[in-house]
Write a structure and sequence with these properties.
Strand content: 15-25%
Family: Belongs to the zinc-containing alcohol dehydrogenase family.
InterPro entries: ADH-like_C, ADH-like_N, ADH_Zn_CS, ER, GroES-like_sf, NAD(P)-bd_dom_sf
Structural class: alpha/beta
Cofactor: Zn(2+)
Pfam families: ADH_N, ADH_zinc_N
Organism: Saccharothrix variisporea
CATH superfamily of the largest domain: Medium-chain alcohol dehydrogenases, catalytic domain
CATH architecture of the largest domain: Alpha-Beta Complex
Number of strands: 15
Largest sheet: 7 strands, mixed
Number of domains: 2
Length: 345
Amino acid sequence: MKAMVFHGPGQRAWEDVPDAALVEPTDAVVRVTAVTICGTDLHILKGDVPEVTPGRVLGHEAVGVVEQVGAAVTGIKPGDRVLVSCISGCGRCAYCRTGSYGQCRGGGGWVLGHLVDGTHAEYVRVPFADLSTHLLPDGVADADAVMLSDILPTAYEVGVRNGRVEPGQTVVVVGAGPIGLAAIETAKLYSPGRIVAVDLAAARLEAAKQFGADVVVDAGDDPEAVVAELTGGLGADVAIEAVGVPETFELCARLVRPGGRVANVGVHGRPATLHLEDLWIRNVTITTGLVDTVSTPDLLRMVTTGRLDASRFATHHFDLSDMDTAYDVFSRAGETGALKVVLTR
């Protein structure tokens, strides 16, 4: 089968690899029909995730049709159309038993495209298939469903829910890429008083407006002053970091008011400075997190009933065989205007 393989920082190739196959009785093999590329895949290619070793098939988001299931799999069967979650949960360890699948100690967590071969391939082995897949209703298109593999539950759980967004509050989202836009989309579920989006790219700020941001601010135009003016000098109730570089994390810490919350979602490859000399007296809460995907069934129901619109995230569509071109377009989002690229066959 063909797959996108990581060969070290800055090196990737769409090439022949051995066919995906069952290894454990809890596995399924899924024929991939749609995938998308994540910012985390780009972090891997930059060398920011050293646990990913050369030879690994990339990708952790997919929709597909079940080809085979292991003897212990009871919830899905060959022919079923499923969403493949970015997180795998063993269902037995102390973390899984509380729904913290991202911290699984039984061989799961974020493993696809990280510790085992991932979804950017014609077929994928899905560990712990009963907990790591979701049956899809006929009315949800592949290109919409694949947004539920990662960006929507990640933004919702790690950004909006960790940030404890409440009605009437001022929420600032720093970074208007796919995760930031998903944070805007899901923050609206809680009726905040105002959503402010901060980014450097004009195209992404325009997208933030379309997704529901009330105010957009170029990161070079003193967002601290803008947020202070909007809030009577207090600052934001919640600042969601959706980039993953030191500058944006430190900006979020400056934007938040006393008693506010900073919810870090971005994947960081470099150290960021935590200015405790300023923050210790301000009662600021800072959260980090890897998505658990425990919210995926709820989000899927909202997409199915039209409460959430997953269709507008995809700006570029490719055939699965055009994986290398899709990576190039997504990696140059500032030039191409790409939000999410979707590859189908």
